[in-house]
Amino acid sequence: MRSPMKIAGSVAVITGGARGIGLAIGRFLAARGARVVLGDVLQAAVERAAEEIRAEGGEALAVEADVTREADVERLMDAAIERFGAIQVVIANAGIARDGLMLSRDPATGKVRRNLSAEDFRAVVEVNLTGAFLTLAEGARRMAEPGTPGVLFVISSINKAGQPGQLNYASAKAAVALWPKILAAELHWSGFAGIRVVGIAPGYTRTEALEAMEQASLEAVLKDAPLGRLVEPDELAATIALAIENEAINGTTIEVSGGVAFGPWQRAK
Ligand code: NDP
Fold first, then answer.
1. 2 CA to middle of ligand 1, Å?
2. Best exposed site among 109, 117, 154, 243 by fewest CB in 10 Å?
């Protein structure tokens, strides 16, 4: 297998890196010799995460950066270049959920209620879609200008298939799942074919949020998963590691879901 890119010695910028999947990816790559730059909204939290990586013998830099703010994302990328000289991997991982049905009926009054507020719709689109755009755009620029080969990752979700109760989240995740196709072609046309674009669409993954879920709902989810358990964050990180070192992986979104193709509501009875 030709593999011009190596994890060891590469510089990886990860948004939403203070915890959950982002931190797990950071630890995984750092353990294999990558220099990791974590961005997140809270300085103390992201610094703690970087310290964890350093305590394990890895190299990590923490930067307070809100992906919805262009200036923050620019600062994050600049900090990576300033500290480590170049960027080879960018992972637009920061994401939030604000679930709710668009409409429901109040059982007590029978009146129609609007559950998903414009504010919650916008917040999810702003972080999961605009934030991912800013991250990839600023990251790609830092690779294209010096001509550094690299990989841009977006984190989608199996909910891109259309999960009820997640109109905002599923819309954003469906959109970013298309980006590898669009951007790999754009970068090729623009003469930057050395920059690849890959999407990762996780299934239900072991994170604090999922562990805090009501047990019955979690069991219902797992019953529909051929894997029979939650996906481990390291299994996502290992897929990212594989994509970094395999230049044939480009312009595609890879599901890492344990076989869950659809939400439980779509299950054929
Ligand atoms: P977590 O909520 O555990 O971690 C997300 C991190 O992103 C948090 O540290 C959070 O900070 C941070 N963050 C939130 N808003 C911003 C922002 N505007 N700028 C920068 N950082 C921000 O999420 P997960 O680790 O579970 O998810 C990571 C990604 O994977 C997300 O894109 C998610 O949608 C996706 N995903 C997760 C799945 C799962 O099962 N867990 C399944 C499919 C996809 P704070 O905590 O302070 O808000």
1. 33
2. 109
